[in-house]
Amino acid sequence: MSQHLLTVDSLSRESVDHLLRVASRMEPIAQRHQVTRVLEGAVLGNLFFEASTRTRVSFNAAFCRLGGSVCDTTGFTFSSMAKGESLYDTSRVMSGYCDAIVMRHPDQGSVAEFAAATNVPVINGGDGPGEHPSQALLDLYTIDKEFQRLGKSLSGAHILLTGDLKYGRTVHSLIKLLSLYDPLRITLVSPPGLEMPSTLIDLVTSRGHRIEQRDSLGSDFSDLDVVYTTRIQKERFTDEMNESFQGLSDDFMVNRDFLDNRCSQSTIVMHPLPRDSRPGANDLNVDLNGDPRLAIFRQTDNGIPMRMAIFATLLKVDDVIEKDLRSVRWFVPSQTGTLDR
Ligand code: NCD
Q1: Residue 308 Cα, ligand 1 centroid: separation in angstroms?
Q2: End-to-end CA distance of the chain, in Å?
Q3: Which of 7, 14, 137, 315 is deepest in the core (most CB within 10 A)?
Q4: What predicted TM-score, i.e. pTM, was given to this entire model?
Q5: What is the DSSP letter of 81?
Q6: What is the Å distance from ligand 1's center to 254 Cα?
């Protein structure tokens, strides 16, 4: 693995398999059975210049669970970028304070520009419509765990990516990451104008995968293993698109009816979250809450072990974790959510 995690392009199949293995060794810590102090004394800088709940908090929690501490700043208003400071200067300054940096920024390429000014590991927590590599890694880790539970294999699996495939950075990183594995069937369904960029389709096809584009969810998906649905990224629309976009029609809605009548009992449902619960958004329907096929909260939980694995690997403590474990002393509920099964 290279010094930073900025794009899936820098990952080999071996480095991804290594991260998956380290993540599963982190499970007892992530599930709060054991604690470690391998990053005791280390400081993470968490710089978020775009809205975030999961990514910011789970990177923070993952670093703390390895024994480190976190300093963070959110939004442009309270950072010196509001006074015109460049990415270069901010990067050099932060490197004097922190041992690793996670950054989210609205401009594609900005996190790579920031990383070019520092020798401290930088993780891209989302650069505009560009990439979100740690999300793709936790998504792959989720697919792997769910498939193990269901006795399925990734090789030859049928995966549906739906929603905003143009601006959704999670699907950009995920499709590239999946393409490192054995040939898959990938179906893409998005509203007109929000299709997956053709460069990504060409790249994945050139690696031997079968990609099919359909214009709605109205057909047969009975052999589907995973439906990965995404939010419409309206904040990235141009004014013209904002005026013409009428909202997501029912043709693109993933709900119980779609799962029961078009998919199968073993189709799992994923979403990077947040799901847009506002009326008319037609994002992933809440009528699937409590359905065991809905993997979205197992997916968010998986963000902790995977982000711990990323830090441990970048900071080179991935082979000393087991030597440093002890049991937790506080109360931990047996299930995290009230609807968990
Ligand atoms: C996503 C993001 O920020 O790209 N969220 C996340 O990090 N889990 C998806 C989104 O905002 O729709």
Answers
A1: 19
A2: 35
A3: 137
A4: 0.97
A5: G
A6: 18
